[in-house]
Amino acid sequence: MVSKVYTYFSTHLRYWTQRSILFTKYKEGILMDEEGWYSVTPEDVAIHIAERCRCDIIIDAFCGVGGNAIQFAFTCHQVIAIDIDETKLMCAKHNAMIYGVADRIEFILGDYLKLIPKLKADVVFLSPPWGGPNYLSAKTFDIKTMIPMDGEKLYRESLKITNNIAYYLPRNVNIQQITNLAGRGNTCEIQEVYINGKLKTMVAYYGELVDMDFCENNA
Ligand code: MGP
Ligand code: SAH
């Protein structure tokens, strides 16, 4: 029992010490819940992804507390931010207000997979749950079995909206598996994300989001 309490506290503390990396406006009253703390995209990373995804209409399919949705509001004309959890959406709206972009984001409470038939967009951003903060305990992260709603199916279903998909994934992800998603003859660009010299996450880009010049020069 004691060790459980200790684990919870140390996990929380680990993310809290990184609070200004997660949101530079943290001190202005940013709100997060437990899952938000360990899954939010750090602001610098979210800024970079938003630049890569610059477009007219973007869907942030798993918006959480708004780490990505807020930055998309600076680079995209319209942002549709979806989350299945009411508390997350409440935090995301509040956090978007702090960044002055709440009126540029349409927040939708619901299950992304069920909403797909009604959605239209130029780009879809996927940052689903990775099954909790212990995702690194597996040597290789299998997106099919370790993303709760099946990460391969999630990608295939998103193709019904657009081919332009950015997928935020763990650093131990199975590279062959995410390359295969692109389909025979197509290119996928996989970006390694480092913070303070440490590999943190991966972002896979598909469709027109792939930087072909970069890929051809680095193949
Ligand atoms: P981490 O590995 O839990 O933290 O998450 P950190 O600081 O790298 O731990 P370290 O002590 O090993 O260095 C790294 C990043 O992955 C977080 O900042 C989040 O952006 C992202 N992330 C982590 N989880 C568990 C999730 C998740 O379930 N879903 C999504 N979309 N992102 C996550
Ligand atoms: N990128 C976000 C973090 C996403 S964490 C950020 O930077 O803040 C993953 C989120 O997916 C969680 O908030 C969880 O509530 C949400 N989620 C889980 N299943 C979902 C579903 N079926 N449809 C939409 N959202 C879902």
Bound molecules: 7-methyl-guanosine-5'-triphosphate, S-adenosyl-L-homocysteine
Poorly predicted spans: 1-9
Shape: globular
Helix/strand-derived category reads alpha/beta
Note the run of SSEs as H and E.
HHHHEHEHEHEHHEHEEH
GO molecular function, one term: RNA cap trimethylguanosine synthase activity
Pfam families: Methyltransf_15
Keywords: Cytoplasm, Methyltransferase, Nucleus, Phosphoprotein, S-adenosyl-L-methionine, Transcription, Transcription regulation, Transferase
Family: Belongs to the methyltransferase superfamily. Trimethylguanosine synthase family.
What is shown here, in short?
The chain is of the alpha/beta class and 219 residues long. 39% of the residues lie in helices and 18% in strands.
